[in-house]
TrEMBL record:
Name of the protein in its database record: Putative metallo-beta-lactamase domain protein
Pfam families hit by this protein: Lactamase_B
One record GO biological process: hydrogen sulfide metabolic process
Species per Swiss-Prot/TrEMBL record: Periconia macrospinosa
InterPro entries: Metallo-B-lactamas, Mito_Persulfide_Diox, POD-like_MBL-fold, RibonucZ/Hydroxyglut_hydro
Boundaries of every Metallo-beta-lactamase domain copy: 26-220
Key word Metal-binding present: yes
Length: 306
């Protein structure tokens, strides 16, 4: 599923947005484009992975490339909102493919706090530091401003789901990753290492302080019963008036209690271990072992003894 958003109320300072849904992981991927120069960024791309066969394929990322190629866009950078725990990033694949096709090195970008996340999970999974240090080409400082063609963009720190989480504001559009979802889903979980329900609340209210017409593009959707299709875009006003967790008047104390109770019922993401090991490497494969294999490790439950 994909769509193109070029509605009449957009200004020259706003991007054209293509949203591409990956059904297997419930993930939204984006291509945001300066309509004047056709310069573009790719946001949170997905690499397909089957944990049973341990095979990768590139269907979702190739849909992004098709949009880029069909429209003659020139990709300036690949933006990651955070180290995802529920899908593997296609950033490295896209960087390699775009480099091969266009002869350029498209930088992979993420928030500056990624170093602490890489160290945490590098040690957890016993990954040599040289496999993830330097994996990202650009690390944004909070509120750092950059250009996409003629458009002005800004990296906005939105901690809570993870401590390194960044959003990207481009004109009147803000790509928020796993901060806030469609109104009938609510907010993102906050039970990962370094996560904080209080920070989720604060980050969402940072977003809600933007003008009511600002468009919010979420990183996921999981349509509940009664809603037929995934939704990528809402407005600040819609979120403030309808979000099931964050409707106007909800106190931080009430939100935190509700968020923690909800998180206690959630299972770990299906691809968590594979995703974290790949994503701290910006989607690069592990180095080969002495036997010539590339390995991802899966922790075992040790509540049994014999």
């Amino acid at each position: 599923m994909q769509s193109l958003h070029t509605t009449s109320f957009r200004k020259p300072s706003d991007p054209v947005v293509h949203d591409i849904f990956d059904k297997a992981t419930g993930s939204w991927q984006y291509v945001a484009v300066d309509p004047i120069s056709s310069r573009a960024v790719i946001i949170d791309p997905v690499l397909n992975f089957d944990p049973v066969t341990a095979k990768f394929w590139t269907e979702s990322a190739d849909r992004i490339l098709a949009i880029v190629n069909e429209n003659g866009y020139k990709v300036d950078m690949i933006l990651e909102t955070h180290v995802h725990a529920d899908h593997i990033t296609a950033a490295s694949y896209l960087q390699h493919t775009l480099g091969r096709n266009e002869g350029i090195q498209v930088p992979i970008c993420i928030g500056s706090r990624i170093k602490a996340i890489q160290k945490l999970f590098g040690e957890k999974y016993n990954i040599p530091p040289e496999e993830y240090e330097g994996a990202f080409d650009k690390k944004w400082d909070d509120d750092e401003v950059f250009k996409i063609g003629m458009l002005t963009a800004q990296a906005i720190h939105l901690p809570g789901h993870t401590p390194d989480h960044m959003g990207y504001k481009i004109g009147d559009d803000v790509f928020v990753g796993d901060s806030v979802f469609y109104m009938d889903i609510g907010s993102a979980r906050a039970d990962f290492p370094g996560g904080s329900a209080q920070s989720v609340f604060d980050s969402c209210h940072k977003l809600f302080s933007l003008p009511d017409h600002t468009r919010i593009w979420s990183g996921h959707d999981y349509p509940p019963t009664g809603r037929d299709e995934p939704r990528s875009c809402t407005t600040v006003r819609q979120q403030k008036e309808e979000n099931k967790h964050l409707i106007i008047g909800t106190s931080k104390e009430s939100f935190v209690q509700q968020r923690r109770q909800r998180d206690e019922t959630l299972a770990a993401p299906r691809l968590m271990h594979q995703s974290l090991q790949m994503n701290i490497r910006a989607g690069r494969l592990p180095e080969e072992t002495k036997s010539g294999e590339r390995m991802l490790v899966i922790p075992l439950r040790t509540d049994m003894s014999w």
